[in-house]
Design brief:
Chain lengths: 228, 109
């Protein structure tokens, strides 16, 4: 069914639902069940991280001190700001303000893009410092001095977790950016009304979830064992 | 939709709270608290997560069904981490007998 037909028929109510409220309940429930599977998906990595952080603590501390804490903190703020604009997007959809909806969605995309850009710069720095497991693993100079006390092999394990966890997170961000682009295109056409904006809300919940993953990744990867 | 429209000010206040907590967690990392550094970092991250879930994700106004599913997800995650860690952390309590040593590959008759 096209958007126009859907709107013609009771503003976006799919035929299998009694009313919009029931449809909204089902939409919300569906995305929450998906997010719970995502919790378990990332949870496996977090559990493995917990084991190795405990086994190889000195190496994890050394690896953590290679990362740039300022970039990590700044990126956290960028991502939190994108969550704010995402929440405001949903609110604009609720109030039926199409202009604000498009603006806030685009702002969310821009902030997400800044996050990914900083992340790309950080990944590049890892190649510069030769601390990319198996691809470019040859730390030297000051980097080596920081990693050596915990054992180089153990430090490599830290960077495997660093790339696996931030990489999986970044992949979720890229998917989120694609979804946002789709929302912008639909919002510009006027597909969303105060009665029907489930896609905006569902993508919003996904975006906030990805933000929460980063809220934990920042202290777990950048702030191990303190910087004093 | 049945969700109430939350004033913009609420979202902005929550955002400012999240920024404050980010600065706090970064600052605390530069203070030597011993093992409490990890506890503080995780506690602050948990507080930030609650802010995002309750306000940005609107769970404050969600149905009981959504809340149960969310709590069940975190309960299962807690089981995963708690049982895995309790295994690894207690292995040294009961060392395997020397006769179980597998340094030499088992010989087949």
């Amino acid at each position: 069914m096209t958007d126009a037909e859907a709107r013609a028929q009771n503003a976006g109510l799919a035929h299998q639902f009694e009313d919009l409220e029931q449809q909204q309940e089902a939409d919300a429930l569906g995305i929450w069940v998906f997010l719970v599977t995502e919790i378990m998906f990332f949870g496996g990595l977090f559990a493995a991280y917990a084991i190795y952080r405990w086994l190889y603590f000195p190496a994890f501390q050394g690896g953590s001190h290679i990362l740039d804490i300022r970039l990590g903190a700044a990126n956290t703020i960028v991502l939190l700001a994108s969550s704010l604009t995402m929440a405001l997007s949903v609110r604009s959809a609720q109030t039926g303000n199409r202009r604000a909806l498009v603006l806030f969605l685009v702002a969310t995309m821009i902030l997400g893009g800044i996050f990914l850009g900083v992340k790309a710069y950080e990944y590049n720095q890892k190649f510069v410092e030769h601390v990319v497991p198996s691809l470019d693993w040859a730390p030297e100079g000051q980097t080596l001095a920081r990693l050596a006390p915990g054992g180089l092999g153990h430090a490599e394990m830290y960077f495997i977790f660093y790339f696996a966890m931030t990489g999986l997170h970044a992949l979720h961000m890229i998917i989120g950016m694609g979804l946002l682009l789709w929302l912008v295109l639909r919002a510009r056409k006027g597909s969303f009304t105060p009665q029907y904006f489930a896609p905006v809300e569902v993508v919003g919940l996904y975006w906030h979830f990805v933000d929460i993953v980063w809220i934990f990744l920042f202290p777990l990867l950048y702030l191990i064992g303190g910087r004093y | 939709m049945s969700q109430p429209i939350v004033p913009q000010k609420t979202y902005v206040m929550v955002f400012l709270g999240l920024i404050g907590l980010t600065i706090l967690t970064t600052g605390v990392a530069f203070v030597d608290l011993g093992p409490l550094n990890t506890v503080a970092a995780l506690a602050i991250a948990f507080a930030k997560m609650l802010l995002v879930i309750l306000f940005f994700m609107g769970v404050r106004h969600s149905s009981g069904l959504v809340r149960i599913i969310l709590v069940a997800g975190f309960f299962w995650l807690a089981l995963l981490i708690a049982f895995t860690m309790s295994d690894y952390r207690t292995r040294s309590w009961t060392p395997a007998p020397d006769s179980w040593s597998t340094t030499a590959p088992p010989t087949h008759p």
